């Protein structure tokens, strides 16, 4: 990955953006796309849109969600411990013993408490719900803690971006900062080739709490087609039931989803574009739903042809997610190729 593109990815990953508190991360994204987009704007809740204005009638939106899972301050007890709740699908099995940051008026460092192994009885081992866990910020009592943080402050795990061997990278919030990176890069490549379609790159908010941003912006934009980029479960690490997801490997390329939400003509567009660009792609099936913003986009305004394009990801919703940056580059290249072909599409309506 080119150094400038990697620097943009790192900035996205290092900027905390839990659901409902995405503005800092959106600013990073907006500053980047503003260098090449014809126009950039946001709505009242912070969905961000950048556009390349093409000459053809076709409009295609490339989307990823900016928000990440995290925690939120629920209350502060008399002893100064900060009680938390979940933002999105936080994994209770990996939260204890983590360094965290509470995003108050000024960032406050803390740790999620864990009873030492010496003091735990093996037969009583279990995982507390997030609401039963607490953050220790070093306060001596409730009054001191309340001088530092407030109810409603968001909390994120304080992990960093780490390069693993080869082209693998690990970080918190790869789900789905890689999607917003990819759609920005897909737009940049569409601009470079001056594609004839009008291309929107969209960074949505609050996907992790119900696809809320996609519901908003899908109605406002009303494009001819949408490609929602998100991570998908890689099944090539120990203990993953391949039969539940189908074979998906890191390094195997972008994942084109078929079935239900995924419109056959947008699937065809992705496959043809991949063939033209000599990009290896993987395929997965979605019999009912995708669990991504595509589920909201495809019913917007009476129906918008949509596709969930996946990036293989290990250890989803943990602070140590892992993706392959070669896959990520390939997703961006595929988006640019799809944008180029989209200008020749007269209609995405199925032939009945």
Enter the CATH topology name of the largest domain. Aminopeptidase
**How many domains in all?**
2
Structural class label: alpha+beta
Proportion of residues in extended strands: 25-35%
Order of helices and strands: HHEEEEEEEEHEEEHEHEHEHEHEEH
Low-confidence segments: none
N-C termini distance: 43 Å
Return Rg in Å: 21 Å
Strand order of the largest sheet: 1-2-12-3-13-16-14-15
Number of helices: 9
**Which sheet architecture does the biggest sheet show?**
8 strands, mixed
The CATH homologous superfamily of the largest domain:
Zn peptidases
What percent of the residues sit in helical stretches (DSSP H or I)?
A: 25-40%
Name the overall outline: globular
Average per-residue pLDDT, rounded, comes to 95
CATH architecture of the largest domain: 3-Layer(aba) Sandwich
The total beta strand count reads 17
Assign the CATH class of the largest domain: Alpha Beta
């Amino acid at each position: 990955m080119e150094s400038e593109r990697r620097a943009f990815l790192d900035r996205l990953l290092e900027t905390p953006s839990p659901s409902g508190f995405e503005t800092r991360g959106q600013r990073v994204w907006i500053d980047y796309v503003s260098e090449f987009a014809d126009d950039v704007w946001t709505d009242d809740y912070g969905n961000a849109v950048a556009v390349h204005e093409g000459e053809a009638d076709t409009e295609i939106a490339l989307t990823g969600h900016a928000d990440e899972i995290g925690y939120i301050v629920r209350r502060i007890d008399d002893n100064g411990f900060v009680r938390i709740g979940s933002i999105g699908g936080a994994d209770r099995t990996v939260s204890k013993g983590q360094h965290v940051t509470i995003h108050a008026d000024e960032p406050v460092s803390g740790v999620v408490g864990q009873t030492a192994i010496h003091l735990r009885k093996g037969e009583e081992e279990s995982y507390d719900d997030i609401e039963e866990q607490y953050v220790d910020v070093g306060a001596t009592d409730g009054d001191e803690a309340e001088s530092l943080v407030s109810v409603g402050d968001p909390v994120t795990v304080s992990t960093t971006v780490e390069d693993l061997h080869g082209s693998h990278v690990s970080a918190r919030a790869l789900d789905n900062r890689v999607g917003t990176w990819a759609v920005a890069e897909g737009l940049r490549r569409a601009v470079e080739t001056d594609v004839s379609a009008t291309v929107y790159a969209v960074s949505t908010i609050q996907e992790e709490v119900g696809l809320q941003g996609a519901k908003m912006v899908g109605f406002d934009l009303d494009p001819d087609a949408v490609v929602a980029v998100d991570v998908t479960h890689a099944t090539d690490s120990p203990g993953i039931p391949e039969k539940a997801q189908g074979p998906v490997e890191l390094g195997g390329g972008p994942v084109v989803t078929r079935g239900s939400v995924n419109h056959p003509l947008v699937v065809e567009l992705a496959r043809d574009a991949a063939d033209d660009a000599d990009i290896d792609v993987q395929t997965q099936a979605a019999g009912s739903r995708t669990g991504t913003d595509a589920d909201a986009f495809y019913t917007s305004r009476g129906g918008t042809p949509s596709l969930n394009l996946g990036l293989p990801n290990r250890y989803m919703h943990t602070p140590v997610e892992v993706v392959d940056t070669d896959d990520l580059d390939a997703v961006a290249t595929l988006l640019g190729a799809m944008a180029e072909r989209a200008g020749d599409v007269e209609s995405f309506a199925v032939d009945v």
